[in-house]
Amino acid sequence: MLADPDTWPDQQPAPTDWRCRWRLFRNRLLANTKFQQWAARTPFVRRIASKKAVELHHLTAGFVYTQTLTAVVQSNLLAVLQGRIESTKSVAAMCGLTASAAHTLLTAAQALKLTEEVSRGFWMVGELGASVLGNPAVADMVKHHQVLYRDLADPLALLRHRDKTGLRDYWSYVPGGSNPDDGHREYSQLMSSSLALISDHILETYPLSDCQSLIDVAGGTGNFARMVKKRYPDITATVLDLPEVVSEAKNQFPRCDIRFVATDMFRSPLPQDVELFSLIRVLHDHDDEPVVSLLTRLHEALKPGGHLLIAEPMAGTTGAEAIGDTYFGFYLWAMGSGRPRTANELKGMCLAAGFSGIREFNTPIPALTRVLVAEKAPARR
């Protein structure tokens, strides 16, 4: 169930089945210079070779693409072009760039579908650029990622020294962080901008029409709870979070019809006989042992037949492996806490905590979030 490699046996025999032997042969072939030259010349496989070469280049140039998006966000380029067509010189003036610099940025952004040249020297927002404008969380994440990129400047040093990172200091609830006073404000703002779309997906996937009450654990300033109340006004919604976060929530929303309770979900007493707990993008932020402990505590606090709703991006998601395993793998490593988990790993943890009847519900965009619902067995008659 638990996937901490540090607990694995020291000596494990390497697999030797035919699949592994085939992959070893394939890799020797692909690394062979003469084979690469032959593939580039041969019509039957030339297209495949060309596609693989482009994929490899994207992998090596990914940082440049990311920094192009960062420049687009920092210069407010998409806001400048929103709803209109502007010349290169106009864009340059509004973004504080020379015409040559603006042309370089506009052209680079067009290759990433962020901008589009409609005629020579005249530009509009591109297809992906429109999506960025429609989702403010993207720009917020781009700005936030500057913290992560500083940690990733020396990735090997990051892997060897996880305890000294900027991202660990950024998140106020991470053990060992040094930003306990202000970190929760930045955290709350970031979560607020990114949760709206995900909340819609969760509630479309798992409707709460038959639910009378919900307790959102580590629910921040109540973003998910407010989305629930918007759809289901009669539900009684409660948010549990750290005292500083609850204080911030009450200051931001003094007349909110959501109950906020200051608590430590790992140590403080929890409400009892609960109908539904929710954990929205919570578990992957924490290591295995505290996760199992939390799940056990939530199971004990549920009433018989009660449910636990888990929603977060998960490792091993088909078509989004790089999001779950690469992005979140390094992000959470730099954060100093947690790891991406597969749906099966989370199901195993729920079973270990006493849950039964664990089901996955298909979300509109699994790359953004997947949903598991676990049940506490009903009381025996």
Topology (SSEs and partners):
Elements: H1 18-30, H2 33-41, H3 43-74, H4 77-81, E1 86-87, H5 88-95, H6 99-111, E2 115-119, E3 122-125, H7 127-134, H8 136-151, H9 155-160, H10 166-170, H11 183-205, E4 213-217, H12 223-231, E5 236-241, H13 243-252, E6 259-262, E7 274-280, H14 288-301, E8 302-312, H15 321-335, H16 343-352, E9 356-361, E10 370-375
Parallel strand pairs: 4-5, 4-7, 5-6, 7-8
Antiparallel strand pairs: 1-3, 2-3, 8-10, 9-10
What distinguishing features does this structure have?
single chain; 381 residues; alpha/beta; Arc Repressor Mutant, subunit A; Rossmann fold; 2 domains; seven-stranded mixed β-sheet; three-stranded antiparallel β-sheet; 10 strands; globular
What does this structure look like?
The chain has 381 residues and is of the alpha/beta class. It folds into two domains: 108 residues, Arc Repressor Mutant, subunit A, CATH 1.10.10; 240 residues, Rossmann fold (3-Layer(aba) Sandwich). Helix content is 51%, strand content 15%. The strands form two sheets. Strands 6-5-4-7-8-10-9 form a seven-stranded mixed sheet, sandwiched between helices. It has a three-stranded antiparallel sheet with strand order 1-3-2. Helix 2 crosses helix 3, helix 5 crosses helix 6 and helix 11 packs parallel to helix 12. The chain is globular, with a radius of gyration of 24 Å.
